[in-house]
Design goal:
With 228 residues, the protein is α/β, with parallel strands linked by helices. It has helices spanning 41-48, 74-78, 96-105, 111-124, 140-152, 170-185, 197-202; strands at residues 2-10, 16-25, 30-34, 56-61, 64-65, 81-85, 158-162, 189-193, 206-211, 214-219. It has 7 helices and 10 strands. Strand 9 (206-211) and strand 10 form a beta hairpin. The longest helix has 16 residues, at 170-185. The protein is globular, with a radius of gyration of 17 Å. The model has no long low-confidence stretch (mean pLDDT 91). Part of the ABC transporter FtsEX involved in cellular division.
Length: 228
């Protein structure tokens, strides 16, 4: 599903964020990305959906080489990848239903199919009854659930989550994690950057620790491994 071969990322200011990274993530895995601030985690995650591009090396996501993809084809790539952000990034002028449906409307899916699929994913995240409400009327946890629903409405093979529980209280964080567990159980690959030690140490999955732009540790069922 994801393969990086000798990937480097050097920014114009001279900072080397990734320093020859090699990793392979298979379909259906659940992987935590951990590491200290400034280690290269954000760059690693952003590369997955082509927010950043490699300076050199080969990077494949679902068979597409992101080092060679043309800019005009990036939106098509992103339709195949679900992304969940720490700050939700919902469209404030659209209600819950419209926020989730938008991802299907841009690919010109038929209205009947859109309605069926949107209601399915809203039911999955437990918020079908709030379909006509707006983001400002929802709690932070509810907004993140809608963000998750939006990320999976296209039935992507991989969901990339960047600190998805960072703005949530502990109880809500566990609810979101249980939701990710259910999505992963259906066969979707989950790649999650997180600083949440308790979640990583409790819900054990593969852990990739990044330090200095390199993979310092790669363990199946690993722990968080950092203080604080």
């Amino acid at each position: 599903m994801i393969q990086m071969k000798n990937v480097y990322k050097k920014y114009p200011n001279g900072i080397v964020a990734l320093n020859g990274m090699n990793v392979e993530i298979k379909q259906g895995e659940f992987v935590y990305i951990v590491g200290p601030s400034g280690a290269g985690k954000s760059t690693f995650i952003k590369m997955m959906y082509r927010e950043e591009s490699p300076t050199s090396g080969q990077m494949l996501v679902n068979g597409v080489d992101l080092a060679k993809i043309k800019r005009k084809n990036v939106p098509l790539l992103r339709r195949q990848i679900g992304v969940v952000f720490q700050d939700f990034k919902l469209l404030p002028r659209l209600n819950v239903y419209e926020n989730v449906a938008f991802a299907l409307e841009v690919i010109e899916e038929k209205p009947e199919a859109i309605r069926k699929r949107v209601l399915e994913v809203l039911d999955l995240v437990g918020l079908k009854h709030k379909a006509r409400m707006f983001p400002r009327e929802l709690s932070g946890g509810e907004q993140q659930r809608i963000s998750v629903a939006r990320s999976i409405v296209n039935t992507p093979k991989v969901v990339i989550a960047d600190e998805p529980t960072g703005n949530l209280d502990p109880e809500t964080s566990w609810d979101i994690m249980n939701l990710f567990e259910r999505i992963n159980a259906s066969g979707t690959t989950i790649l999650m950057a997180t600083h949440n030690r308790e979640i990583v140490n409790t819900m054990r999955h593969r852990v990739i620790a990044i330090e200095g732009g390199l993979i310092a540790r790669d363990e199946v069922g690993g722990d968080y491994g950092y203080e604080g």
